[in-house]
Amino acid sequence: MSVVRDIPKKQIEIEQDGGAPVVALDRVSKSFGEFTVLNDISLQVNPGQTLGVLGRSGTGKSVLLRLIIGLIQPDSGSVCVFGQNLAGQSLDQLSEVRKKMGFLFQHAALYDSLTVGENVAFPLQHHRGEMSKSERSDRVHDLLVEVGLEADGSKMPSDISGGMQKRVALARALALEPEILLLDEPTAGLDPISSGEIDELILKLQRERQMASIVVTHDLFSAKTISNRLALLDRGNVVIEGTFEDLQQSDIPFVRRFLTHS
Amino acid sequence: MSQPVSTNLIAIRPRLADRGATSAVAIVDVATRFVGGFFEWFGNIGIFFWQVVRAAVTPPYEWRELIRQLDEVGSKSLPLVALAGAAVGVVISLEARYSLSRFGAKSLFPSTLVYSVIQVMGPIITGLVVSGRVGAGIGAELASMKVTEQIDAIEASAINPYRLLAATRILACILMMPLLTIAADVSGLLTGWFAQSMVEPLSFHQFMESGFNGATFNAFLPPTFKTMVYGLIIGLIACFQGMRTSGGAEGVGRAATNSVVLGSLFLMLADVVLVKLILVVFP
Predict the structure, then answer these.
(1) For residue range A82-103, what is the model confidence (pLDDT) as tens digits?
(2) How far apart are CA B156 and CA A103, in angstroms?
(3) Which of A21, A137, B29, B195 could form a disulfide with B93 if both were Cys (CB 3.0 to 4.6 A apart)?
(4) Which B residues 160-199 touch A at CB under 8 Å?
(5) Contacts of B158 in chain A (CB under 8 A)
(6) pTM of whole model > 0.90?
(7) Which residue among B40, B58, B76 closes a domain?
């Protein structure tokens, strides 16, 4: 079913097929100074679903993810995660929601004073106090095996490549077994082989863990590979939302131009 | 010839008047922005302090990070603080011996040294050294974490950065300052005595007995424990400057510089208030 539309401004309705959405943005706007980054947008992600957010640089894709994890607050509209509105929550209240979310930053954002293994162990140390040291190191090892870096646990982040840093960040994001995974440009700046490996890794995780994901990218091929729904942003608005086929069949000039140049 | 000149003068006069008005508006604008920025800074640091206090008093407590910071602020500052204290001890010894000899009061040398080091120089020198070493370190470290999104990553990992990063560092500064001050005092007294005994032999026992003769705890405890306030100032300003920085490498440099400059400045201003307060409370 095609859900092509210009600017979605209708109230969010819970989709019947996938249950209550795990993430729901309702008429969200965000500006920085006089620059409007997001303009009255509504999106939702259901359990087990992967939404790919596409768009040109500076169209508010990363801002969208930061709103969902509560790092910034919207100027208007609401951001609900697991049915809980994030507005006005204290840091400790937000932390309870964030424990169910994993975030992969665009530039990995690894703790540069900790080793690769310590980076992955960091969330476990703080939120899995009941784990013994050996259980924790086993879990870190398993996560590093999952991202193919089991031999690099003792290296410092500065000693590994950009692609490896992204994998470590992904392992760290998965440490608490999140129900939602937010990925900010997971393949940006990587060579095609590393990009493909990251995509395969994300697909494998989706198959094995059945978690909802939102992937921000301007890599159309990657978005097509790992997402089952796509949303294309332009100047703070959702131009189109649907499957890759919906985008291909669209006659909206911006969509055609985006697909042609990707 | 004269006609064009006078015409020009008439034409210039209103332009000068305009320029004067424009300059006045610009000065008022700059002054308003400066005053606004000044109060905004205080407002923001007040909010920051409240967030840190709220995070610090609610569980989970970050004991491991606190111990790491106690080592970072305390043990690693100890050699520098002891060296600064030693230098101060020698300088006071040389200056005091010369001045006291001129007034025929050489017998007062031990107590002059003891009071100068413990009540005045030890606390302020320790504060300035720690502000330079620790303040710059905290400011640069947190600013670097901020611009590389590491603080956002901590927050995204459901960890309160005010609790993990700010509260532990500020608390470590508060707890370690009195201990470092005692180290600076001891070092200053030892080198002061040593410098004196090089010129005029005096046993350490005699020096201590004469120096602390008639002294009470009230004379030494308040100056030592007032440095906890210095610790609060150093830690709070450095964490605030670091965690709110922006602008890449330049922002990191600015945060480190501001941490030291503002930390030292507010430390000296606080000293003025605390000295007066101590004189009132412990006469």
Answers:
(1) 999 998 888 888 999 999 999 9
(2) 7
(3) B195
(4) 160, 162
(5) 94-96, 98-99, 123, 126-127, 176
(6) no
(7) B58
